[in-house]
Amino acid sequence: MRNALRSLTLIAAVVMLAACGGQQNSADTSTVLATVNGVPITNDMFRAYVRSLAGGQEPQLDAQRRQLVLNRLIDMEVLAQAAQKSGLEKQATVAADLNIQRTGLLAQQLVQQYLTQHPVTEDQIKAEYAARTKSMPGTEYRARHILVASEQQAKAIVNQLNHGANFATLAKKYSTDASGKQGGELGWFSPDQMVPAFSAAVAKLKKGEYTKVPVHTQYGWHVIQLEDTRSTPPPSLDSVRDQLTNSLEGQQVEAYVNKLRQDAKVVVSSPGAASNAPAPSATRAPAAGTKR
Q1: Residue 166 falls in which region: left (phi positive, over 0), alpha (psi -120 to 50) or beta
Q2: Under 8 Å CB-to-CB from 10, ≥6 apart: which residues?
Q3: Predicted pLDDT at 55
Q4: Dihedrals φ, ψ of 250, to 5°?
Q5: Under a CB-based contact definition with an 8 Å cutoff, are residues 155 and 214 in contact?
Q6: CA 281 → CA 187, 284, 291, distances in Å?
Q7: How far apart are CA 251 and CA 245, in angstroms?
Q8: Are the beta carbons of 184 and 225 closer than 8 angstroms?
Q9: What is the pLDDT of residue 160?
Q10: The CATH number of domain 138-231 is 3.30.450.40
């Protein structure tokens, strides 16, 4: 199992190395750690590989682990050179994979550079927080309801309530909703969790009151009783800071990509030709005069 996992890791690493060009980048002038058939493996390559293994981080490694990583890089270069020698990189699928790897890496680095040069500001975070919390419901409700199929049935239930009948008892007897078994109990909910007509009716009730006029929704006819209310303060800014920052960064990147795309000359020549199905294998055309 360990050998299989090592092989998979190595194969993935080779793909990464090949995507970066296989040979040393002309801009890489860092210390040469080793050479393979004259091709240098540099310290910048070493650091890039460590970051790829550590999810973008760059942990400090002891001497044993540094040697292990260097050996992996040497194995990668040996395999990459063998692949190039065999002409593997000229195969259409391999060339496409390498191109996607290279394009994705460049795009990722550009986005990271853009966000470093255009960081989200504290004012942006506070403005986004204010906008989101303003639209958050400030009150939650606890209510019961009785759901029936017709307005006539609902009015009859209201009439029984007017004469002192117990709401929970009527819910168990008449409600077609699953909550009927619990006396119509819905628990706590915010207005946006219910359909608008239902929420609007609940908001007009005082504790203990029920709707004297049945409420119609796509589910049927409701008689609703408000049991309690409670205020729901928004989450603190610090508790959602990372979420807001990520959202704002996403908005900035989207705007940046849209601007780049507007400035680019994009020609979609065959929009219907895109397919993830494998290409058909080539077949030899029949010679002239040959019967088929």
Answers
A1: beta
A2: 72, 75, 76, 79
A3: 85
A4: -60, -40
A5: yes
A6: 62, 10, 22
A7: 10
A8: yes
A9: 98
A10: no
Cβ atoms of residues 125 and 248 within 8 Å: yes
pLDDT at 134: 86
- In Å, what is the CA distance from 77 to each residue of 69, 102, 105, 213? 12, 17, 19, 78
Q: Which residue's entry shows tokens 């040996």?
A: 78
The residue written with tokens 């929420």 in the block is: 199
Which two structure tokens, joined as six digits, stand for 207? Answer: 């504790």
List, for residues 73-110, the tens digit of each pLDDT value: 999 999 999 999 999 988 999 999 999 999 999 999 99
**CA pair distance 182, 223, nearest whole angstrom:** 15
In SS3 terms, the chain reads as CHHHHHHHHHHHHHHHHHHCCCCCCCCCCCCEEEEECCEEEEHHHHHHHHHHHCCCCCCCCCHHHHHHHHHHHHHHHHHHHHHHHCCHHHCHHHHHHHHHHHHHHHHHHHHHHHHHHCCCCHHHHHHHHHHHHHCCCCEEEEEEEEEECCHHHHHHHHHHHHCCCCHHHHHHHHCCCHHHHHCCEEEEECHHHCCHHHHHHHHCCCCCCECCCCEEECCEEEEEEEEEEEECCCCCHHHHHHHHHHHHHHHHHHHHHHHHHHHCCCCCCCCCCCCCCCCCCCCCCCCCCCCC
**Which residues of the chain are under the pLDDT cut of 70?**
1-29, 277-292
Which of 73, 59, 96 minimizes the C-alpha distance to 22?
73
